[in-house]
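Assess this:
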Amino acid sequence: MSAARAGPAPAAGKTSNRNRKYSSAINVRLTYSAQYNQTWRQRMIASEKRLEDVRSPLVREAYRLWEGKRGDRRMPARADFDPVEMPKLLSSMILVDVERPEIRLKVRLAGTKIVDMFGSDYTGMYMDEIDFGDVRSKVLGEYMLCATEKRPLFSDHSFRKINDYYHSIERVLLPLSNDGDTVNMLMAVLDFERTREPPPEDG
């Protein structure tokens, strides 16, 4: 997984890679926000993992913390979380701002474990500008589903680190809200497990 980079200036009369990627990013935002539809929603829900099937103690701890902080609200706020309370989670956490009125997702913070595993720090980047490879639609779709349906989402992913083993990823996405209704931030916690063989396709 690597961030997109602009190449040399294109020759006159040709569309640059940067322009094509920018156009693609616009299309992704339209697909996952303005044109949100039932078929897409069902496809994302079908790829979800049930809480009872989650193996990772780290992912379970993140969910328990979120559940405890929300109380009788639909979602807790970012201000409810104290880093001192979650030292084991911080390095494996991604915080994503949900920008409105047209929903667009921007990485606010990526933990040190995330940066090390993916080989890049995506802090400050919009998620639709990041190269997620073959799982682009799945990754963006799951984040968007969490933001629009205002509920936790568990899932499995896989990738191969450069010059290293394959890794399976168990992940939870957790919605946060300042007013208890509108999602303004997502908290993701990822747990990596190294494997010698490529994990089964996760769609």
Remarks:
- The beta strands are 2-3, 93-99, 104-110, 130-131, 153-160, 166-176, 185-195.
- The first strand starts at residue 2 and ends at 3.
